[in-house]
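Margin note from the TA: students keep mixing up input and output lines. Inputs are the sequences; the output is the structure of the whole complex. Example:
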Amino acid sequence: DVKVTQSSRYLVKRTGEKVFLECVQDMDHENMFWYRQDPGLGLRLIYFSYDVKMKEKGDIPEGYSVSREKKERFSLILESASTNQTSMYLCASSAGLNTEAFFGQGTRLTVV
Amino acid sequence: GENVGLHLPTLSVQEGDNSIINCAYSNSASDYFIWYKQESGKGPQFIIDIRSNMDKRQGQRVTVLLNKTVKHLSLQIAATQPGDSAVYFCADHYNKFYFGSGTKLNVKP
């Protein structure tokens, strides 16, 4: 079975902290994505990666960075967490651009 | 980014009725679309896809229609059941996997 695993279901962090959200996929997929999901706004793409060490900005990259050192792992980094980054974060992977995406369970991050 | 939107944030239907969820997109070059279902507490999951060389595709109780002229697609669910209650997203997978804002389907018993 296809699996995308996010390291935490729930996280509470303080304003100004550096936050790492980890995502691992076991399908040898080329592409990996990070989205945030907020009520009424749907899924908004933060960053995606189409290969190891490659990354491309999505619609809302400000305040975030990413790291893809290994094919199976894609990390989202909040350099200095702020309260407006409180959200549900979803990681996804796909074999190619014209193929379905497989999602993790999501990480609900609260910044206080 | 690309504009992919859903027409209604919420849709309520009676159990047993058919449901129709609509979506519009802006990129005329888009050639691959997917409908996802997101149940509470879970990530979105694939339901059905359609490529631009088709205008209709059927699955089990679900049908997707694509109208390239007006850049519109719809998801039809036949004989809606309580287990269909979820948020439904259309996604444009042409380039960066853009998602619409979602329609929450409420199924009334």
